[in-house]
Design goal:
With 129 residues, this protein is α+β, with helices and mostly antiparallel strands. The protein has a single domain, classed as HIT-like (HIT family, subunit A, 2-Layer Sandwich), CATH 3.30.428.10. It has 3 helices and 5 strands. The relative contact order is 0.22. The protein binds adenosine monophosphate (AMP). Adenosine monophosphate binds next to loops.
Length: 129
């Protein structure tokens, strides 16, 4: 069965899209640690990051860096942190999280955004790409 993230790539489930190329896709995390928290995923559906072939792994890092630089330009933060967990969704995803303090990196500190705030955040990041 297709992962929830494959359904997002295919447009079957909505998302706040940030970027897409032939092999990768980026969108806002729906339950963000901080405003601008973004997920970068390979279109190829693989569960664990260490199981990616090297080309896809390196491509995902390059794509994530591009998106991370745009987040850093768009969102007021100290820096953008990168994290890979994957315990919830079995489709590789890189978390890019605007960090101001350590608690932003803990996944226990969540912020609530409404639809307009998600849309404005996604538009601000896209404008920096
Ligand atoms: P993990 O697998 O533990 O790295 O976490 C999965 C992440 O995916 C969590 O931060 C969720 O908030 C996020 N997530 C789950 N479903 C969606 C969705 N439909 N749209 C955006 N983000 C999602």
């Amino acid at each position: 069965m297709a992962s929830i993230f494959t359904k997002i790539i295919n447009g079957e489930i909505p998302c706040y899209k940030i970027a897409e190329d032939d092999n990768f896709f980026a969108f806002l995390d729906i339950n963000p640690n901080a405003k601008g928290h973004t997920l970068c995923i390979p279109k190829k559906e693989v569960d664990k990051i260490m199981d990616l072939d090297e080309e896809t792994y390196m491509g995902l890092m390059a794509f994530s860096r591009k998106v991370g630089l745009a987040i850093e330009a768009a969102i007021d933060c100290n820096r953008v942190g990168m994290s890979v967990i994957g315990l919830e969704v079995p489709h590789v995803h890189v978390h890019l999280i605007p960090l101001t303090e350590m608690k932003d990196a803990t996944f226990q500190n969540k912020v609530t955004l409404d639809k307009e705030q998600f849309e404005a955040t996604a538009a601000a990041i896209r404008a920096q790409l």
